[in-house]
Amino acid sequence: MSGPYLELRGLKKSFGLKPILRGVDLDIQRGERVALLGANGTGKTTLLRLLAGLLKPDGGTICLEGVDVRREQQHLRRQVGFVGHQPYLYTELSVLENLVFFGHLYGVKQSEAQAMKLLEQVGLGQRARERVGVLSRGQLQRVALVRALLHSPDLLLFDEPDTGLDDAGVALLEKTLQTQAAQNGVVLFTTHQLEHAFAFSDRMVVLHQGRIVFQYASAALNMESFRRAYQKVVQ
């Protein structure tokens, strides 16, 4: 097996005098889906934002295929697609206008055609010309998903992507994660739904007080036993 696609070593981040990440070590291989779990405030969102290049670490390294992304920010942007708590879309622009704009930022060729193709896949093809401001929370999540997929990134980062989704949206999310892994990509996602963490991941990772305290293959775990142990950690 070759080296890990994503390699974190001693990753640290503080806000003011408050340490959030206290030295995170994590390796993720190509074709792997990893669920990142933990209580609110334990550093999950901070970790994803560091990986997305939206924050800078105070210490440690982030490497993608051996490349230190602190020195190669453009390398990071080309490889990462991120869906956060907020959709980060322009509400006065149409769905398609938003996606074409981001497509140009990513350097996507034929960005309008690519956006329409993906909108059809998520069931929003007929809403392409509508303003983003009139969409429901679940529809906004789908548009944000399309934006993250526009440039065919190797690494998908999802921060509680199942929030506000109906059953069809959850099924779409699961299919997206499966497709990414099948195409030898990588997924790191957070969720508070342990059922989704088990169903959508190959490995479970628990972050507690800024450090990884547990990680194990999802298929090797008993859900109820894990749930009891997890509740003790996050209390």
What does the secondary structure layout of this molecule look like, with pairings?
Elements lengths: L5 E10 L2 E11 L4 E5 L6 H8 L7 E6 L2 E2 L4 H7 E4 L11 H12 L4 H11 L15 H13 L5 E5 L7 H16 L3 E5 L3 H7 L2 E6 L2 E7 L5 H12 L1
Parallel strand pairs: 3-8, 3-9, 6-7, 7-8
Antiparallel strand pairs: 1-2, 1-4, 4-5, 9-10
Helix pairs in contact: 3-4
What descriptors fit this protein?
single chain, 235 residues, alpha/beta, 6-stranded mixed β-sheet, 4-stranded antiparallel β-sheet, 8 helices, 26% strand
Describe the structure in your own words:
The strands form two sheets. This protein has a six-stranded mixed beta sheet, with helices on both faces. The model has no long low-confidence stretch (mean pLDDT 92). It has 235 residues and is an alpha/beta fold. Helix 3 (95-106) crosses helix 4. The chain has eight helices and ten strands.
